[in-house]
Amino acid sequence: MRDPKKAAGAPHGKRGTNGASSAASDPSTDGGYNAGMAVFSYIIGGIIVWSLIGWGLDYLWGTRWIVLAGALLGAVGGFYLSHMHGLTSSRKTADERHASSAPSQDGKDNAK
């Protein structure tokens, strides 16, 4: 039986150049949303993981404060990761006043 949702000329159900998938993959249309979701995921993921580690250590050692330290460490670590991936910097493409925070392509340090 044939699936009516698939395009007739497209192999394996892939859309052609006129499909909506090409517009959704354009980095200029949804770059801010994707970067925001990545920052949110890093920070919330860090809080959850390190809080669980702190909760486990609290249970083993009979303390009550390590879960809070783990949550704080996770939030700081998530922000650090998002900053190192270049998701939290405000770059202006038309205005070249801000230097790029990414490493150079040749691997050398650009410091003078």
Automatic annotation (TrEMBL):
Keywords: Membrane, Transmembrane, Transmembrane helix. It comes from the Bacteria. The chain crosses the membrane at residues 39-57, 63-82. Residues 1-27, 90-112 are annotated as: Disordered. Residues 18-27 have a biased composition (Polar residues). This is F0F1-type ATP synthase assembly protein I. It comes from Pseudarthrobacter enclensis.
